[in-house]
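TL;DR need structure tokens for one chain.
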Amino acid sequence: MMKMTLTSRGSWQRAALGALLSAVATLHPAPALPAEQPETVCIQCHAPLPGKLGAPVELWRKSIHAVNGISCNSCHGGDPKNAADAMNRMRGFLGVPKEQEIPVFCGRCHPGVLKDYLASAHGRALGSGGPTCVTCHGNHQIVKASLDLINEKSCTRCHSFERAKAIRDAMQQTEGSIIGIEQRISGFESIGVDTDRLGKALFAVRNRFHTLFHDVDVERVKAESTQINAELAKLDDDLRVIEQARAKRRVAGGIAVCFMLLVAVLLHRLKKSYD
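>> reply
TL;DR here they are.
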């Protein structure tokens, strides 16, 4: 009878230890590892080449396109898996666009931005000395849309910086809020929290914000920024609700861990007393 009791208590100890480890794992889940993207034949062929034939690859590696898995064929077409057909027009190869074709070329993936650009002073000057997408964003080292693009060095290549600076200043707080909320949503997503609704809402707000990048109407930019900040405040409130709920869960989890530790200690002492 005593042996069965001790065996039973040993099972309880193992169960308590298992529950304790499970609780700790729940509080500190292991981070997911990002999947590696295979390189296209375009990159494999051009990367080792000298000069201008290999330079685009090095520029592309530093771009927002590379970060998001967008490779050469995504823009230039062709077969990314077969070297013989990588530049085959029958496989959709487009090559390098002419200057006036660049906005439409980029607009295949960014139709909303294309619309904003064509309606802007920059777009209306296309073909008569006006800037294209690559003027500000680069061609292969594509720079992510941010207020860093609105700077004196870049803008004064064509005109004074006064109006552009006023627009940038009006948008500064908004961009900071967008970045902060995006980081919080990504943090929740990485630990398994359902952030689909919040992510979609932020995506819509960010796209609305980005439409202001091509606008030169200072008063309109200020008014739109005020409305966008109000929408971001709502997202901030939703994130606070999630943060408070998780804080309560952490407290409850901590109490559960302490309880399981106490049970394990008591069972260990009981076993020693029987021994």
